[in-house]
Amino acid sequence: MSSGSARTEAYIALADQGDYRAQLRLGGIFRNSDPEKSAKYFKQASDAGDIDALYFLGVDYLNGNGVPQSRPDGIKMLQAAANRGSVSSMEMLGGVFSRLCQNSRDKSDGGLAEQYYQSAFLHGSKASAVLLWGLYAAGPMEDTYKHAVWSEVTHALSSSSQRDPYSSLAVEQNANELVPKAKAEVINWYARFNSKPRVKTFLDLNRVYDKSL
Q1: Closest by alpha carbon to 131, among 103, 106, 109, 153?
Q2: Cβ neighbours for 94, distance < 8 A, ≥ 6 positions apart
């Protein structure tokens, strides 16, 4: 859909009347061709409370796309969207805090990454299981036990076979306790996957929108 099309002009007329759905679509239409205009419309829709717009605007602030680059503002908007059920925002925040942890070696950042990835997982994000697996593989958050747990959760979700995910725990002095504990935790996480209902947003309910979103 070109920015000069009759449909775009109709969206602009609706957006000027305060229709957040038109504002959201215009944010997507102009995302590549006019980042500043895109951010303007996402801001309008986010002010109306739309969580998809909050997500996109948060990403724009993180990247400096159409707005001054500001990590604090980006995080604030993503957190507002995540608190209202935006799984994309949860995943994005997990990535933001994971990178901060890798750079700062501050485990408090890693704890926030863990928190957001786990929340996304409970809302049905398989990708977050993989990201948690990676979070514990190396670096400040390296954890043999948690890495084994999320290795098995990841493979259980994909129904793929793998070597014994608990082999790394077998060499631990308290292996007789760790392995059964890990297996029980895997079952618990697997059972809770997708246990929290996903929020149905405008974009979820209306699939005909600009593909750049």
Answers
A1: 153
A2: 113, 114, 116, 117, 120, 128, 131
For residue 57, CA distances in Å to 10, 102, 148 come to 23, 25, 36
How many whole angstroms separate alpha carbon 137 and alpha carbon 206?
A: 39
Q: Please state, in angstroms and rounded to a whole number, the distance separating the CA atoms of residues 34 and 39.
A: 9
The Cα 70–Cα 198 span in angstroms is 28
Tokens for 209? Answer: 């929108």
Cα separation, 41 vs 38, whole angstroms: 5
**Residue 173 is which amino acid?**
Q
* AA letter at 153: V
C-alpha 193/C-alpha 121 separation (Å) is: 6
* DSSP assignment letter at 161: -
The pTM of this model reads 0.90
Count H helices and E strands in the chain, helices first: 12, 0
Quote the CA–CA distance of 147 and 108 in Å, as a whole number. Answer: 18
Q: Tell me the CA distances in angstroms from 49 to 22, 41, 136, 140, 148, one per residue in order.
A: 14, 13, 35, 36, 40
Structure confidence by residue, pLDDT tens digits, 94-151: 999 999 999 999 999 999 999 999 999 999 999 999 999 999 999 999 999 999 999 9
Quick check: 157 and 163 in contact, CB under 8 A?
Answer: no
